[in-house]
Design brief:
It is built from 17 helices and 14 strands. By secondary structure, the chain is of the alpha/beta class. Strands 2-11-10-9-8-6-7-5-4-14 form a ten-stranded mixed sheet, with helices on both faces. It has a two-stranded antiparallel sheet with strand order 1-3. The chain is globular, with a radius of gyration of 25 Å. GO terms for molecular function: monoacylglycerol lipase activity; short-chain carboxylesterase activity.
Amino acid sequence: MEFPCSDCCSISELVLKAASLIPISHYLLGIWIISFICCYNFLEIHIISDFFNGFRGNPVSLTFNSSSQIYQNVVSKCSILHGRYLVTPWLASPHLQTSFLNFLGRPPKFTYKRQLFLTPDSGTIAFDWLMPSEVTRSFSHRSNAISKEDTTPIVVVIPGLMSDSDSPYIKHLAFDIARSGWNVVVSNHRGLGGVSLTSDWFYNAGWTEDVRVVVDYLHREYPKAPLFAVGTSIGANVLVKYLGEEGDNTHLAGAAAICSPWDLLVCDRFINRRLVQRFYGRAITIGLQIYARTHKSIYSRLVDWEGIQKSRSVRDFDKNATCILGKYETADTYYRNCSSAGYVKNVAVPLLCISALDDPVCTREAIPWDECRANKNIVLATTPHGGHLAFFEGITAHCLWWVRAVDEFFGILHSTPFMHKRKEVCLFRLPANWFII
């Protein structure tokens, strides 16, 4: 049935007239509601679900082998890992948490003690030490120097891709561990921490040689001090890969991997999938370009400098720089060879892995669940929320949940007989060549 054109016009006029009768405040309210819903979903905000959950947080999910002694003797005694994690309410979004950590972070104030370490290939690594005497009065009587007879545990920190000892989350970690009475040394990547590159070798996501040399040196210099290590983000990938390569042949008594990418190829696909992830990819690319410009004299001599400047993604930078410097045929070859997921099965020391399922950079899709469950030395702790390396908690966002979890895990591990057995095994290994300046 057809209506005359005049009827159509009448209907349109009626609709417009009815629309004009609606108060403009209602339209503004509708626009605000739609904008709020879009922003809420885009930023993955979860404060409404937290509210209906009574702001009790979510329980930590633990993945481990049923016959794991690490779980039975250590993790089972960790109250933090068996508790609940509640995100700071006004940071109830992985993107808000991650951004707040990188731009503000509220790091504690203290001063490191700098030591320059020269590797066998003439590369320079900046060691930044933090000792208990620097952060708490109860240890004020101690000397700032560590003797060869000192039995105080040492925690080696391996930062993320473009992070160094001044990064807020690194300072949170170092301060918390030092306050517990342990010595901390942040092993800055080559070319970071305000130190120039002194060789043609560069670090990357799979470069484990620096960790190997650093651990061997620390064991030789402080043979009676138990060694532990914490890796964050790319540093976690490097640490797990190192542990898998070494197996029993490491002086580390325990380790923790925080927000590891696990599978670099999967993470590369993930970071280019959605608009919000592309922001992170672009930010990381800009950071890599700044790093390259800082060391332009070496980069421009070894790689295509114009290609670095034109890079618009992490893959572009890796193709134009990392692959050439690391002698990888393609970016995919680099990602496959340097992913730590393939080395998980060979890890032979107690390892705590922590990841947030809403991590906006290192996707949950890359987590090697089955491999972690199969290895009796690994316990994987995951939380629904936390962002990338953030895990802020408390109304004032005064501390990071994962920092407290690692501190408790190391403390209980150090007090178990298993740790002392590992130390006896490691004493039989001769350290690699080492140099110091």
